[in-house]
C-alpha cells in the first residue's frame, strides 16, 4: 500500500484531485490511499504518508514543511498547470516515481 497525502490551505481545493487520483489508481489496480488535509494538520497526518504533495497555493512553504517532516518523506509541490487541469494521471505517476526514488535512497 502506498500512502499519498495532499496538502493545501484548507484541504478543500485538493479534494477534487484526491478523487480523480484515486480513480486513476483504482482503474490501474494500484493499492494506493490518497487523502487531503489543511497545512496545519500535515505534521500529524503525514505519519503514515509515503509522500506529501503540496497544492500550488502553498508551494512556497515546501522547504519549511520538508524541514518540519524531516528526511523520511519527500515533500513536493504539485505543478500549478497539472493541478488546475486535474491531471491526476500525471500527478500520480510523478508521486509514485518520487516514492520509489526515496525508498531506494533509504535502502528499502
Features:
single chain; 4 strands; alpha/beta; Rossmann fold; 108 residues; PTS_EIIB-like_sf
Q: In this structure, how is the largest beta sheet organized?
A: 4 strands, parallel
Strand order of the largest sheet: 2-1-3-4
Summed over residues and divided by their number, the pLDDT gives a mean of 94
Count of the domains? 1
Low-confidence stretches: none
For the secondary structure, the number of strands is 4
**CATH topology grouping:** Rossmann fold
Task: Output the structural class.
Answer: alpha/beta
Discrete helix count: 5
Please name the fourth-level CATH homologous superfamily: Response regulator
Q: What proportion strand?
A: 15-25%
The CATH level-2 architecture is identified as 3-Layer(aba) Sandwich
Shape: globular
Task: Give the radius of gyration.
Answer: 13 Å
For the record, the CATH class is Alpha Beta
Taking the alpha carbons of the first and last residues, their distance comes to 14 Å
N-to-C SSE series? EHEHEHEHH
Helix content: 40-55%
Modified residues (Phosphocysteine): 8
Pfam families: PTS_IIB
GO biological process, one term: phosphoenolpyruvate-dependent sugar phosphotransferase system
Keywords: Kinase, Phosphoprotein, Phosphotransferase system, Sugar transport, Transferase, Transport
